[in-house]
């Protein structure tokens, strides 16, 4: 029985994310973290299965991830009221330039690692590459998007997947996209300021298959 308990404990330890380990390390070091700190720090620490990008995904809105460090505790804010509020505001900004849920579709072809981003009647081709056990993705667009290349994380979700990129990279892409579809890109820049004060701010897309 003791051996089974030990095996379970080891398995549980390996499933902790780097954020969770950081939190526990602070507690063991005699920090002043409270139970509230622990719960908020562990919020969003979930297992994300590898995503096999193949087929067509529909854009469902902006996805945001950020972390915050208070009192020495690193909290992952993904999926909390904080990021939900930022996502809602970002969606408002993008709606003003015509980028709305349902109007964009990514079609990935795993046979030759090409993809096409369709925005209304505009088609933007490119190449993609996944890595780190299908947990990262690099999108490289063609001439129309000035060969823009961006690398981010790939996460599974209940309805499909999320692609998340460093905020500056994502905003650069969204500005180019707005310009490509004939819209002003000035409003898009405001997205980068929505998470002032937070660390590791990433922006991307919620996609359903």
Could you characterize what this model shows?
It contains five helices and nine strands; from the N terminus they run αααββαββββββαβ. The N and C termini lie far apart (44 Å). The relative contact order is 0.17. The protein is α+β, with helices and mostly antiparallel strands. The N terminus is likely disordered. It has an eight-stranded antiparallel β-barrel.
Report a brief summary of the structure.
By secondary structure, the protein is α+β, with helices and mostly antiparallel strands. It is 30% helix and 35% strand. It is built from five helices and nine strands; from the N terminus they run H-H-H-E-E-H-E-E-E-E-E-E-H-E.
Question: Which helices and strands, and how do they pair?
Answer:
Layout: H1 2-15, H2 18-28, H3 35-42, E1 55-70, E2 73-76, H4 81-96, E3 104-109, E4 114-119, E5 122-131, E6 136-141, E7 149-156, E8 160-166, H5 167-180, E9 199-208
Antiparallel strand pairs: 1-2, 1-3, 1-9, 3-4, 4-5, 5-6, 6-7, 7-8, 8-9
